[in-house]
């Protein structure tokens, strides 16, 4: 399951709650496009801002609307006992896998991060993807820590941040991690603008923000790279540079939020306060980039 | 209320829940010592790890056990609507003030941080202390942002991180902020090892971790500084250096957790997973420091 394109859609949310209709339609759109898996309630899906009840409900909608495509559900929370409850809810909803970032308020020691994964993986009945996202968690995984966690039962994948620009350095980065983890654990790249290089460097999966809203575009890059066409994969990715530049400037979440509402896939606003959408100027830049790239549906 | 010594105790918590008896006893101890206010559910009080229901219950226990000493209740959460619910609960429990750190998962823009305070302060009936804690929130307040927020209705204080070591630089830091905020808004220092210098430099309050467990010690420093005895205040603080060194090395939370259980004020463990107490060696260092300083009750 943790291979190929894993698409991470928004969870359209405003102060009244989750827009269940729009949410289900996003999952149906991804399933129809043929993505390999769908990541519900990832960072793009705003898991950190929703209650346990909202997350359990969203997981159920996601699995139903995905129509057989495997759904990976984010179970991150600040407290271990809450993570375990969320894992139970995700499995009850029919998740094929779970995704866990070590959220922090107090900084965690390496042993505390390991302990979290140890306590959570023990009772799982579906595989877990370790979510390494220093930008939101402020946890800086060493490869040695990844190696320790990857030996735990039920660990199936590691979602790493972007790989280096240089292809050789990217290969070394992926190979270095691969040497420390079991063969059964896959490596998936995130940081969309580095994904083609990550796949070319040997990553098994792309955990993709853009794939959650523009699945065909992300599938084209993924299929090229995974079938050995390294050059075309990079070319396809580089064509998307206007969008990547906006991702780097404003964060992928706010750009995808503006794009999804521009396309009519969600209402506006679609992010929970205190998060606010882009201002008018930045929104125009997003629309211009989408027009340039023909990403208008 | 936001003046003098504000003492921040632990909320003794394990996997079974909050130890309400120990929690009430901590508040009674602080009230008996004569602290000026008590901060319930601050960072030391583990607010970020507790449910809304647990926090509402803890706030009620706190106000009752504080026996008339003003209680400031932490209302931080990742989502604005949840912060507003927590503010309502705190006021219902009888809080005299509330404390709000801008917790983050996605990084917030300055306008988003301002918007959070704008949305929360609008409906308050008690004053709010702005909690500037980059170590846990990863929000870096500029003085200009503090100035904007301090103009909002119901803002009564700003809890700043530690001040510079140099007394003149500390004065400039406090004066610089003071120039941008209304006269009605006080400034309180945190970062316990800088508190004497902060009070000497003009801070109105010390938001104190050590004061939550060793109130008489913290009161001695505060009373010296606030009555114009700058030298003795610094001397008293410097005597505590064995403890400050441990705070800097392990974080104040874990050190106070070990100290409180060593004194029998709480059981063990007293922190919620994934947070774990100090290891055996570090614990021995804490006990040795307490013995050296005569902090054994």
Automatic annotation (TrEMBL), chains A, B:
Signal peptide: none annotated. InterPro entries: Aldolase_TIM, DapA-like. Keywords: Lyase. Belongs to the DapA family. This is Dihydrodipicolinate synthase family protein. It comes from Streptomyces hokutonensis. The lineage of its organism: Bacteria, Bacillati, Actinomycetota, Actinomycetes, Kitasatosporales.
């Amino acid at each position: 399951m943790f291979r190929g394109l894993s698409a991470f859609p928004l969870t359209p949310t405003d102060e009244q709650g989750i827009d269940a209709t729009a949410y289900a339609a996003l999952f149906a759109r991804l399933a129809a496009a043929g993505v390999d898996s769908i990541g519900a309630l990832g960072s793009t899906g705003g898991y950190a801002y929703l209650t346990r009840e909202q997350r359990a409900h969203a997981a159920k909608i996601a699995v139903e609307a995905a129509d057989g495509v495997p759904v990976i559900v984010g179970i991150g929370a600040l407290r271990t006992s809450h993570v375990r409850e969320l894992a139970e809810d995700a499995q009850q909803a029919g998740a094929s896998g779970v995704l866990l970032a070590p959220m922090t308020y107090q900084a965690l020691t390496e042993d505390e991060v390991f302990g979290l994964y140890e306590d959570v993986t023990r009772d799982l009945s579906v595989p877990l993807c370790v979510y390494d996202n220093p930008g939101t968690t402020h946890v800086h995984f060493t490869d040695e820590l990844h190696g320790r966690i990857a030996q735990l039962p039920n660990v199936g994948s590691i979602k790493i941040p972007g790989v280096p620009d240089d292809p050789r350095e990217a290969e070394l980065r992926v190979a270095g991690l691969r040497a420390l983890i079991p063969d059964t654990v896959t490596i998936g790249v995130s940081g969309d603008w580095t994904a083609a290089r990550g796949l070319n460097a040997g990553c098994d999966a792309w955990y993709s923000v853009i794939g959650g809203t523009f699945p065909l575009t992300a599938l084209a890059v993924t299929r090229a790279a995974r079938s050995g066409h390294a050059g075309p994969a990079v070319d396809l990715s580089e064509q998307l540079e206007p969008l990547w530049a906006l991702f780097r400037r404003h964060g992928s979440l706010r750009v995808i939020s503006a794009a999804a509402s521009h396309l009519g896939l969600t209402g506006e606003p679609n992010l929970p306060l205190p998060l606010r959408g882009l201002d008018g100027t930045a929104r125009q830049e997003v629309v211009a980039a989408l027009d340039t790239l023909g990403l208008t549906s």
